């Protein structure tokens, strides 16, 4: 990780925008990207800035939270992807929502009276705090990192701060407790977004992200949309309606589908979607964070699609059957 | 029409098999085929012989009844098309089921006591006979033509015969009454069958005939079959289940779908069928007898299919959107 | 079996109309009906007469061929059921299409030169005749029974006749050969039709017959019709389109569905059909001829329907869940 | 509105829990409930506490944000409704996300240097702040109300606070600017939740909220779920997948459907859902906040359902048709 520019001019380094400052969960997600190592990491204040950096060429890619975020902004991110052209998701990353309680060196847990914390993070650690620091008071912080930085800088009166574990990589802080979030299984899903480019090659464990508007609002339109996937044996791992906002009762759907655009069944489903809907936004095909191999009925394999095309070609040419 | 072989060797004449003898409704259907004029017409005894003539190269094409036949054999014809490989339907023809009462010259209607008729034709003229010849008796005939030929030859005791109108083109007979069938709207549908060959070019008023086996018997399998058409805006004009006969509860479906295999939506539906079913028999795309232009929602036009493919190609290549 | 009226006046005997005369396949079907024993059997000339007998109270029930008939008239039967109100199918019977060759006592197979046969039956025995009587000639008969009766009466010149096996129960004839039909598995399906009445009680091996018109012709209307069955786990054993005849492109569908109207899933499907279509004709629920128990996924059992209704009632009443 | 207990003992007053303190958007939603006037309003710290108050009888109802909340906690609310039994949504309320900038009396906009704000609200006013207070600094606050309370109490160094408009009803503060949020159309959707009870009577403009688990994960299961609505002409205004969390790839769906459980088509859809899914949570039918009359095809009206039931009853009884 290197927030400062590289000394050598060649090759030119790439820039990655992310919700900063250093130490956020988003930075932890970026830390999972091998290609981002030793490149320029550009902290920004929100998802809109991160995506605008990409579109306006200030960054090569942006890491943004897309599901279950504790840093906020998920529906903002979905709406931005639906309305900003020229973007492509190229990777997915999962970060456990795993808070730590940190303090200046020398401070002990029993000394803690005032806890700095972003209000959302604070709400997620209430059970632990009630059990272990029943007498504490809360000092609101502007972000999950600002809570700890205030302590380091000495500008905060807090005795301890709630922060992501990554904070310990950046600041000289003492770990008082870890895993203090009330939900030990909470995970935030992030995606890495670049400008439009060919998708990464299929790995067998891929996901395709789409945003699709219904052609018109009638009972059954949604069904017709989803049939495009079901009739090709494609499972969805995310489906969410979002009001489009231009007229009452108009919706777009945010969709993650199992598989890659280079899989025959996915390509065929995309053709069907495009014919069905006035607006299909292809956000990209990319490896799933969980590396789970996509399973599907044999009748939807590439071979079956290719064989069917050969068969049709034979029919049309009028060759006698073999 | 020329039942006898042609004298000139060039060009070689084509042979058409049909349910004979001359004068049947099937011959009337063949009379609608411009290309069959001045070629060899080969009368046979049943559908099986007609199709075998084609497969075994004794004929170039066969005319067979496929729906509402009064000459019989429709389900035999469907089953034969399902099991004999190497055949292709190339045309469709409609013949009104329009019986005449004929007699030797000089015979008057009031003289008629014994009426020769194929039993099926006889049953279809019962109302007319009861009204106009209440005292008549029935002499069964082997076919709709044999009834009249017996009179001409003098080997039949009948005073009159029920026959198709075409009989008057072949024999010196007197027309006693026409349109004597009980159902004035009855029409038999015929198809012209050749060996496998490229289908006639699309006319905009085409039909595609298929026989499809369900992959396995479960509630919903039929639905999935029909979705292949519905999700491409394709109407069906014929749908009939036929037990396959190899195991209880296994069916094949005889299908006529509006459109031509060279229409994008039909080609796409055939690909879907082929992937869905272990056995799809393409019997051919050919002009509809009624010349009715096929109508379909604009979203299933060729343009939309082509545009969607271009769009997908752009996506995969990673080009920025226009 | 008793074609003549019974001597005792009490209880009043029931009348069954069937395609006669005695000896037809239809009579064989009627012979399978235990309740018809010792009742009045009324031979008629065609399906229309048989059904009219029921509607106009001349008969209590009629036996008619409904699938794969060699006596003809299947589509006539379907159309009649679609248009004559007040009828109900109460039973299903299967009769093998099993022809015999019969002659006057003393005649030997090698003596046979002229064979009397209904033309349709004759066509179905051609292979056997070619193999065993290659030199024979055909004398057309008006029906499968008339062929044999002519021999018995001496008014026919034929040496032998093709007839159903039942002929031997009625006439003093010698069996020259049996099983002479070309397709040893051919079976005709018959139904027994009464006036509207409660359906026979469910047996677990039942069938429900329906005729349904599509509400309007659009791609997908048929699909919606069939979904009514598929979404309740109901299999179809017969599905056939029939043009209605009142306007181009309008169809009705002849349907046999597995199950009984008193099965919850079938009742629910009928409700769905009725809401969907302007015209649903319920022809009846009755035991299947093959006594095959109807199988369906557990989630469509009566229990599940009843439980769901209880659950909904609880919801609406606002009772806390158990 | 009356945070203090009522003086008169009769009738007993009802208690409403809401995300406090006084002045939040949630309180503004509660202000829209006529029945809540002059009752006890109980401020709590999060959605979990609010719903627990209802279940454990400390409150009669709770107001919670369910969509587009700026106070946070939407997915928490959805998950809580999915897992806490005994709850029922009885009303829906919309509150514009409409921030104000407030200060102690006498402070002028040009004097403001330090702005107290909950970090999420702060992020939503960034554009306005950049334009009007480019030199300001941010003082994080624990909530949208705490920001302003700190100013009133004098314990905050901030010159001004970002807060909901409702703050002005509770505290002696000066309005420096209103409508300062970056998205002028932002609206938060709230629902009022009681213990299980009969739903409010249908108004014609109703909504039914459900949470449904898929029975098992297979392509097409979701489709089958949604067919339950589409085949009864029911539109959805919200559909969102949520991972159940007990096993990979298992989902529940949060659904808002147009109509009331006492509408025939909705009752029928609920029956279908219950038969389809192992777990259907009915959260309630209640008037839509936007009072938009629900429209649906005539064929799904109550009359059609009732007529179909009468028809079926007639069929089963075997009465001749009228």
Automatic annotation (TrEMBL), chains A, B, C, D:
Domain Prephenate dehydratase residue range list: 15-195
Keywords for the protein's UniProt record, in alphabetical order: Amino-acid biosynthesis, Aromatic amino acid biosynthesis, Lyase, Phenylalanine biosynthesis
Top enzyme category: lyase
Pathway(s) the chain acts in: Amino-acid biosynthesis; L-phenylalanine biosynthesis; phenylpyruvate from prephenate: step 1/1
Documented EC number(s): 4.2.1.51
Keyword set includes Plastid: no
Record has Lyase as a keyword: yes
Superkingdom, natural source: Bacteria
CDD domains associated with the record: ACT_CM-PDT (cd04905), PBP2_Aa-PDT_like (cd13632)
Residue span(s) of domain ACT: 210-287
Molecular function terms from GO: prephenate dehydratase activity
InterPro entries: ACT-like_dom_sf, ACT_dom, Chor_mutase/pphenate_deHydtase, Preph_deHydtase, Preph_deHydtase_CS
Reaction catalysed by this enzyme: prephenate + H(+) = 3-phenylpyruvate + CO2 + H2O
Any Pfam family hit: PDT
Protein known as: Prephenate dehydratase
Gene responsible for this protein: pheA
């Amino acid at each position: 990780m290197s927030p400062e520019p590289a000394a050598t001019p060649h090759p030119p380094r790439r820039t990655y925008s992310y919700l900063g400052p250093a130490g956020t969960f988003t930075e932890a997600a970026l830390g999972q990207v091998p290609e981002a190592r030793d490149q320029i990491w550009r902290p920004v204040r929100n998802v809109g800035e991160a995506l605008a950096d990409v579109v306006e060429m200030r960054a090569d890619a942006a890491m943004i939270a897309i599901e279950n975020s504790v840093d906020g902004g998920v529906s903002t991110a979905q709406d931005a992807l639906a309305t900003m052209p020229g973007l492509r998701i190229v990777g997915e990353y999962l970060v456990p929502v795993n808070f730590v309680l940190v303090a200046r060196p020398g401070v002990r847990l029993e000394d803690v009276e005032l806890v700095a914390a972003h209000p959302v993070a604070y709400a997620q650690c209430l059970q632990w705090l009630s059990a272990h620091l029943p007498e504490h008071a809360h000092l609101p912080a502007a972000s999950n990192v600002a809570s700890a930085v205030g302590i380091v800088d000495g500008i905060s009166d807090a005795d301890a701060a709630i922060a992501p574990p990554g904070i310990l990589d950046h600041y000289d802080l003492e770990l008082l407790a870890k895993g203090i979030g009330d939900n030990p299984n909470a995970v935030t899903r992030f995606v890495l977004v670049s400008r439009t480019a060919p998708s990464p090659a299929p790995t067998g464990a891929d996901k395709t992200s789409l945003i699709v508007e219904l052609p018109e609002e009638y009972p059954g339109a949604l069904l017709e949309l989803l049939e495009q996937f079901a009739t090709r044996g494609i499972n969805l791992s995310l489906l969410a309606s979002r009001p489009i906002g231009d007229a009452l009762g108009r919706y777009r759907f945010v969709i993650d589908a199992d598989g890659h655009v280079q899989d025959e069944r996915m390509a065929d489903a995309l053709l069907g979607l495009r014919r069905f809907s006035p607006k299909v936004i292809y956000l990209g095909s990319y490896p799933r964070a969980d590396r789970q191999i996509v399973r599907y009925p044999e009748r939807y394999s590439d071979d079956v699609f290719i064989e069917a095309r050969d068969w049709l070609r034979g029919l049309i040419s009028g060759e006698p059957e073999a």
